[in-house]
Structures are given as structure tokens and as C-alpha cells.
Amino acid sequence: MAHQILVHAMSSGGSTTVEALIKHPMDSGFVKDKAGKIIPAHYIEVIEFTHKGKIVLTGYWGPAVSKNPFIKFSFKGGKSGDPIGISWVDNKGETAATSSNIM
Amino acid sequence: MKLALIVLASLWAAPLAQAASQPDPAADLQGFQGYFLKRFPKVPLAAYVNGPYNFSKSERDQWKQIIEFPPYAFAVADGKTLFDTKFANGKTYASCFPNGGIGIAQTYPMFDAKTGRVVPLGVAINRCRVANGAAKLSLTTGKLADIEAYMTSTSDGKPIDVVVPHDPRALAAYQAGKEYFYSRRGQLNFSCASCHVQAAGMHLRGDVLAPALGLTASFPLYRSSWGDVGTLVRRFIGCNKKVKAEPEAADSTAYRDLAYFMTYMNNGLPIAGPGARP
After folding, report:
1. How far, in Å, CA of A96 to CA of A22, rounded?
2. Domain count, chain A
3. Which of A80, B40, B136, B254 has its CA 20 to 30 A from that of A47?
4. Which of B46, B77, B239, B254 is catalytic?
């Protein structure tokens, strides 16, 4: 339940569109809780997508990205059944990864 | 002649007086659904579950993109995990509900003849927790909303089937909910019906007001302004605050009865929960 990543990847016409929804609080470090204490910054710094082990997208994220971020992109190539990998590292050193196949 | 008229008049008045004192949910349902169908002839009955998206193309287009990858997906997944997690005594939520809790959300809120009160799904989930030695959860958001989201997702597309039994207490609860719906309150002096019947389909600043018909079918739902999934009760509290009225307690009889009336008015419409709204 802690770290979930949902991925859909579809190939059509020689390119593949990848959509992912990532569960993460993405706390900016500027928000206070009900008791008035600052919620410490906690956000994804690097996110990587791979196609058959080769990196197709690297994102350098920061505190400006929303909670539970959604990302959609496409790359040339890829066919049905190919593995798509996704992983992220946040500023606390926590990490999560998952993989899926192109539909 | 005069006497005959008086006799006739009294004969005619008697059933009327009885009708006024006795709530008639079935007739209300026909009138309620008929009102909207006549006012918006282009919107088919089942489409009312999509609320504001029937009235604004731009909102509809955005919504279609949003539900391609629904923001409530995590809530449903977490809800399933919670639903399948055993209590300390080894039982699960499935033991508290008919059919193991799967595909039954369309029958809530339910009238409970034992306590004489209306039981919405959220209250039933809390009852199940208490019966199995766990603490109650908040009825508005968080874990309970997630469990409700999962249970509702298993009822997707099933027609809403809320029953008002021939029990004076059930009819009284229905009538109280109806009165709450049509009563003006708060500094702005609005009733639920002011926005969701009278002004349905019109704009409230940038948003389109959803008709009361179909309103409950997509709860619990993800609201972008909440950034989270919340229950119908959470929306009741929000609506009361918006018209500057003191909200009721989440577990209050007033909200239970209101949910009972509103969901009964949606009978026959398909469950479309969890939903997504701006």
C-alpha cells in the first residue's frame, strides 16, 4: 500500500504511449499541519522509464510537482509485449520500482 | 343541492388530507425523475449519473481524459486491501454483509428495522468494525472512504435499489430527508433544491451545478478540489458550509435521512461510483 505505481503502455503506429500514476505525498516543505508544524519536504527527485532495459525518459522532479503525480509521454519504437520499467528515488532516499508490458 | 355539494366536497377532501399526511415515496419518485426528464429532454435517464458533464462540453472533455487513468484508482486498490484485511478476531468485512459485501452498494442506505434508523453504507462499515472489536473510522474521508470506494466499484452499473418499507419509522425517515432537502437554511438561505433542482445545469461561478437526479450515484468520489476521495457525507458538510449553515454531525440522523431520500430519488439509475468531479 505504501508505494504504488500504475502503468499503462500502448503501442500504435510505430510509437508507444506510456501513462503512469504514482502514489507519493510530494510534500513541498512549505505546508504546515493542523498543529502548526511544518510538514518536512518529501518529494520525488528522479524518475526513470526504461524500455527493454534502455532508458527512454528521465525526469528531474521537485517540490512543485503535485501529490500522486500523473505522467504521460510517448517514444518511438516498442511493440506489444515489450517490458516497460519505471522507478523513482525521492529526497529521503526512498525508492520504488515496477514493470509492465506494452499492450 | 347545497347539501350534496358539501357531501361531495368532504368526500373529495378526505383522501386528499390522508395523502398529505402519508408520505408516498413511489409517487414522489415519478414526479422527481419526470421533472428532470421533461426539463432536459436531451439527457437520457441513465446519463444523469454523470451530473455536470451533461451540461458542459469542456468539463466533459476534461473528465474523459481524467477517467482514462482515474485518480481514484489508488483509493479502490487501498480499499480492497483494507476490505480483505482480517480483524483481530480473524473475521473480515465480508462476514458483515450479504454476498460477502460484493455488488451490494446499490441497496444502501438501508432501513434497519431493529434500530428504526437509516443505515448508509459508511455507517454499516463502521458497525461491522465495532461488531468485530475495531474502532470506528471517520465517515467523511480516509480509510472508510477507500473501503466504500472499493465496495461501490463492485456494484458499478447495477441499478440503484433503495427500499422504503411499509414501516411508519421508515416513512418518517424518508419524509424527514425530503423536508431537509427542500428546507432553506444558512445565511444564504438556500435549500439543497435551490442549487440542485431549481438551478440544475446552470453555472455557479466556473462550475456547473449537477441535477439532484443521479447525484448520489457516483459517490464516494474524487474531487479535484479535495485532492482526495470523499463520501456523500463529506459533500453534505461542504454544501452546508457553502450556504453558511452549521453542518450536522457526520453520523447525524439528519444526514442519514437526507441520503435516504436523495438515493431513493435515484432508484433505477446505474451506480457510477467511484466518480471524479472538478
Report:
1. 10
2. 1
3. A80
4. B239
For residue B140, the distance in angstroms to the closest alpha carbon of chain A comes to 17
Q: What is the pLDDT of residues A54-85, one digit of tens each?
A: 999 999 999 999 988 999 999 999 889 999 99
User: Considering CB atoms only, which of B68, B71, B78 is closest to A1?
Assistant: B78
What's the gap in Å between the CA of B78 and the closest CA on chain A?
6
Q: What is the CATH code for B24-69+165-277?
A: 1.10.760.10
Q: Do domains B24-69+165-277 and B73-153 have the same CATH topology?
A: yes
Residue B110 cell numbers, joined: 438501508
Q: Which residue on chain A is closest to B81 by alpha carbon?
A: A1
Per-10-residue mean pLDDT, chain B, length 278:
48 48 90 95 94 93 89 92 94 94 95 95 96 95 95 96 94 96 96 95 91 95 91 96 96 96 96 92
Interface confidence, given as ipTM, is 0.76
Host domain of residue A52: 5-101
| Residues paired with residue B219 on neighbouring β-strands, in sequence order | none
**The CATH number of the domain where A73 resides is what?**
2.60.40.10
What's the 3-state SS for chain B? CHHHHHHHHHHHHHHHHHHHHCCCHHHHHHHHHHHHHHHCCCCCHHHHHHHHHHCCHHHHHHHHHHHHCCCCHHHHHHHHHHHHCCCCCCCCHHHHCHHHHCCCHHHCCEEECCCCEEECHHHHHHHHHHHCCCCCCCCCECHHHHHHHHHHHCCCCCECCCCCCCCHHHHHHHHHHHHHHHCCECCCCECHHHHHHHCCCCEECCEECCCCCCHHHHCCEEECCCCEEECHHHHHHHHHHHCCCCCCCCCCHHHHHHHHHHHHCCCCCECCCCEEEC
Distances, alpha carbon A103 to alpha carbons A3, A50, A51, A53, in Å:
23, 15, 13, 17
Structure-derived torsion over alpha carbons of residues B188, B189, B193, B197, reported in degrees to the nearest 10 = -60
User: Is B73-153 assigned to CATH 1.10.357.10?
Assistant: no
